[in-house]
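Please fill in the sequence for the structure shown.

STRUCTURE ENCODING:
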């Protein structure tokens, strides 16, 4: 049986439908004694918490009008805390993202079960030192680091997505550059929940496209 609270919050078309759906589910608990009603409601609440996304704003630069978490710090945290997988799409990468790349090199070298999927837009036009670092990881760990490149024949890869363990993800506007991570006014969302799993699937799907080229032995 679907979780009535989750149905009310996510699947119902509007607030009135959600309220009616939840009231009907609660009426059905009327035959239970109070402790069992409370237990059932607690299960619904916990289930909904487990399956709803939580979102936090992250950003770079000044002038947003609110205090938001640093996008660079949040990105580095996700990479450093990854245990099973990292998915990363890159529109532009430079040595301005050196610390983030160092974090990625560190977790790849120290976590034997970590799998990394990297998808790079226009790889031949990226800065050589950064691409060399990514390629070196793919060469050193060919069973765990998959480096792919996309050309614009089917559209530019402009998405900036970082997924950690399919549980947390950052989707934003910043490139992996000094300006993108430090100076420009960039904005993103840190997601925790089921959508992170979907984002991981989406990145892997792009990596499997016919136009996605293995970059391991290039440059």
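FILLED IN BY: designer on duty
SEQUENCE:
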């Amino acid at each position: 049986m679907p979780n009535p609270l989750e149905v009310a919050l996510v699947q119902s078309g509007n607030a009135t439908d959600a309220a009616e759906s939840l009231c009907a589910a609660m009426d059905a608990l009327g035959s239970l004694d109070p402790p069992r009603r409370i237990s059932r409601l607690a299960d619904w609440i916990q289930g909904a918490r487990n399956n709803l996304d939580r979102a936090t704003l992250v950003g770079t630069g000044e002038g947003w009008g609110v205090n938001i978490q640093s996008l660079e710090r949040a990105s580095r945290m996700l990479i450093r805390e990854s245990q099973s997988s990292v998915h990363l799409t890159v529109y532009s990468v430079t040595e301005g993202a050196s610390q983030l790349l160092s974090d990625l090199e560190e977790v790849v070298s120290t976590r034997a079960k970590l799998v990394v999927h990297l998808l790079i837009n226009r790889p031949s036009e990226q800065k050589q030192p950064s691409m060399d670092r990514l390629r070196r990881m793919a060469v050193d760990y060919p069973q765990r680091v998959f480096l792919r490149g996309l050309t614009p024949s089917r559209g530019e890869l402009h998405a900036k997505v970082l997924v950690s363990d399919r549980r947390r993800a950052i989707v934003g506007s910043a490139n992996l550059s000094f300006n993108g991570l430090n100076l420009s006014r960039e904005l993103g969302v840190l997601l925790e929940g089921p959508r992170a799993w979907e984002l991981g699937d989406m990145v892997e799907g792009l990596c499997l496209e016919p136009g996605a080229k293995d970059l391991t032995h290039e440059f």
